[in-house]
Known about the structure:
Structural class: alpha/beta
Distance between the termini: 70 Å
CATH superfamily of the domain at 9-88 and 115-192 and 299-377: FAD/NAD(P)-binding domain
Mean pLDDT: 91
Bound molecules: flavin-adenine dinucleotide
Strand content: 25-35%
Shape: globular
Oligomer: single chain
Amino acid sequence: xxxxSSAAADAVSSDSLTVMGGGLVGSLxxxxxxxxxxxxxxxxxxxxxRRAGAEEGRSINLALSDRGWKAxxxxxxxxxxxxxxxxxxxxxxxxxQGQLTFQPYGKENQAIYSVSRAGLNQKLLDLAEAxxxxxxxxxxxxxxxxxxxxxxxxxxxxxxxxxxxxxxRLFAADGAFSAVRAAMQKTxxxxxxxxxxxxxxxxxxxxxxxxxxxxxxxxxxHIWPRGQYMMIALPNLDGSxxxxxxxxxxGENSFxxxxxxxxxxxxxxxxxxxxxxxxPDLATEFFQNPTGSLVTIRCYPWAxxxxxxxxxxxxxxxxxxxxxxxxxxxEDCSVLDSLIEEYHNDWHAVFAAFQxxxxxxxxxxxxxxxxxxxxxxxxxxxxxxxxQKKIESK
Length: 394
Ligand code: FAD
């Protein structure tokens, strides 16, 4: 009995492209494909985040940099996003005594930008919805892909009903634990690895000050480097900051070691004293907010004939310490677009060239991201590093 045996295939018109996942990469990709004249169907497991209330009202932000900007500009929305992005011109390091040191990210006005994840995704979905060539389907979870028959199975998560659809070309932007990639993994000689850090992350929130202002320097990425762990904070437009604590799961200073409100408060008071007054709900948030894991996923090939291609985290999930996961996924979209042009819509050639071009870059940024964790949590606080930076910048 195959997963498809009882469901009638509901044929999708043959010129329609199927995008799995309406996250950051899937929604941007749909815009690129539609600009080339294709009709696009996007299937997204979650509810429409524009209606569901953005991640329970909490703003989570990401660092957007040059590669991401170029890809957004490619569909004409760079300027609009810039209006709601906060430039971060430098790192501000907070030591254990609350002393600050600074490292510029570049020269003069060069910066990386803090943007709201939900806000950016909403903007991309708005644009996709306004495009008559794109159809968005929410609450649709891909549960199975039959590569040989070009069919996939979708479960409506609101009604728990299933439908089967055929597809001509499937663009998988369904994230690190991609259902489409799961089907590729069953093919012969498929290369796949996943590796988790022994660290997790916890998001905490610094509210705006009483006058609605930022309680720390606004145009900066703040870091509390502490050797074996660290915390960072990025600014939001409303005067708040999102802090992320990167912390071992086990050991002396770890999630496992902090079990009570008193332990959390005492630990923060000892190692992050300057931020404690800015985190009034520290203990509550610490225990209520989930602990996220940090995975690196590598796989190959990313394409199956002229039929399936993986993009974004589905093909290269990386740890967040270079702030490049979304940026790299956005760059996937602009590179794929340029290859469609170069190979005149010959999908076999486009997909083959895409994976050959992108795989070495994806592997490189995966390694750099792990390396940068050591730099951010440890070496940025090393006086020799600060001295060397001063010499380099002379
Ligand atoms: P996702 O964002 O995971 O989106 C996948 C979409 O597919 C989701 O909407 C999901 O609901 C949907 N989906 C999943 N499974 C299915 C299914 N079976 N059927 C249908 N739909 C499905 N990157 C940066 O560039 N800068 C940063 O500063 C940065 N900071 C980060 C901080 C943290 C703590 C983490 C964890 C990541 C960070 N990243 C950052 C990485 C960034 O979040 C990812 O690279 C980016 O979200 C990848 O986008 P994506 O669309 O490929 O995948």
